[in-house]
């Protein structure tokens, strides 16, 4: 999710994974080290490579878009290893390949002359988009209610990794805005004190299917903006 209200869907690889599982089952039925086993082992390896190629192609095209179209890209410096310890998040986080994506983004931003900043993620989902006051709340609390200014918004603690945006568009954007603001501060760049609620909160989230990134090579945003944040 970025500060323009755009979210890119996860790459759909269910057919490839289903085929991989079928081929792995076939491999388990073969006599170990036999000629048929070796042929099937190569088939399984090809399935793995196909998934890897498609994932990297998707990440290359998505990172190239943001590096090319924006003047500043700010991302969260996520502890992916820690996130992988959670069995609920492990597959989705691994599939997102966040570290690979940010590595691609960093060198492509450098190539394009785009500022790239990694910021500390702590508190980005807790800060109020309207007044900046941080409100502690456990992960099971899905509603942000600011005691200072009264802003209420749905919370999505994992808005970008899971992209379950129904009912959480405002909070996901608020998090993206907080990331961008921190990135500007880290760069020492002055920016407006106006909040996204006052000036730039999108009326809706545009969810771009991953296949539109893979096929044309970009998520097809119509107007090239000046700054963006990517939230993990």
Could you characterize what this model shows?
With 232 residues, this protein is mainly alpha-helical. Helices cover 47% and strands 11% of the residues. It is built from nine helices and seven strands. It has helices spanning 14-29, 35-69, 80-84, 90-96, 98-112, 159-162, 169-187, 196-199, 210-214; strands at residues 6-8, 72-76, 115-119, 143-145, 152-154, 206-208, 228-230. It is elongated and about 70 Å long.
- Which regions are unreliable across 5 or more consecutive residues at pLDDT < 50? 156-177, 189-204, 217-226
| SSE run | EHHEHHHEEEHHHEHE
Straight-line distance between termini: 8 Å
Calculate the mean pLDDT score and round it. 68
Structure summary, number of beta strands: 7
Helix and strand content put the structural class at: mainly alpha
The main β sheet shows up as:
3 strands, parallel
Oligomerization status of the protein chains = single chain
Number of helices: 9
Into which percentage range does the β-strand content fall?
5-15%
Global outline: elongated
Q: Taking strands numbered 1, 2, ... along the chain, how are they ordered across the largest sheet? A: 3-2-7
- The number of distinct structural domains comes to 1
Portion in helices: 40-55%
What key attributes describe this structure?
single chain; 232 residues; mainly alpha; two-stranded parallel ribbon; elongated
Describe the SSE topology.
Blueprint: E1 6-8, H1 14-29, H2 35-69, E2 72-76, H3 80-84, H4 90-96, H5 98-112, E3 115-119, E4 143-145, E5 152-154, H6 159-162, H7 169-187, H8 196-199, E6 206-208, H9 210-214, E7 228-230
Parallel strand pairs: 1-6, 2-3, 2-7
Antiparallel strand pairs: 4-5
């Amino acid at each position: 999710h970025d500060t323009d209200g755009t979210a890119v869907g996860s790459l759909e690889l269910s057919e490839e994974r289903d085929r991989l599982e079928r081929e792995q089952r076939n491999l388990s039925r073969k006599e170990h080290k036999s000629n048929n086993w070796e042929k099937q082992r190569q088939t399984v390896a090809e399935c793995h490579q196909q998934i890897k190629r498609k994932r990297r192609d998707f990440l290359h095209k998505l990172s190239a878009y943001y590096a090319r179209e924006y003047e500043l890209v700010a991302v969260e410096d996520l502890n992916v290893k820690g996130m992988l310890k959670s069995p609920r998040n492990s597959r989705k986080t691994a599939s997102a390949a966040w570290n690979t994506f940010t590595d691609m983004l960093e060198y492509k931003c450098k190539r394009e002359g785009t500022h790239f900043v990694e910021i500390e993620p702590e508190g980005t989902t807790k800060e109020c988009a309207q007044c900046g006051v941080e409100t502690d709340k456990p992960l099971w609390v899905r509603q942000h209610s600011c005691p200072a200014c009264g802003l209420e918004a749905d919370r999505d603690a994992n808005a970008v990794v899971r992209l379950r945006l129904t009912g959480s568009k405002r909070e996901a954007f608020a998090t993206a805005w907080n990331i961008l603001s921190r990135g500007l501060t880290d760069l020492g760049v002055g920016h407006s004190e106006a909040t996204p609620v006052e000036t730039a909160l999108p009326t809706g989230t545009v969810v771009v299917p991953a296949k539109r990134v893979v096929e044309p090579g970009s998520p097809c945003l119509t107007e090239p903006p000046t700054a963006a944040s990517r939230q993990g």
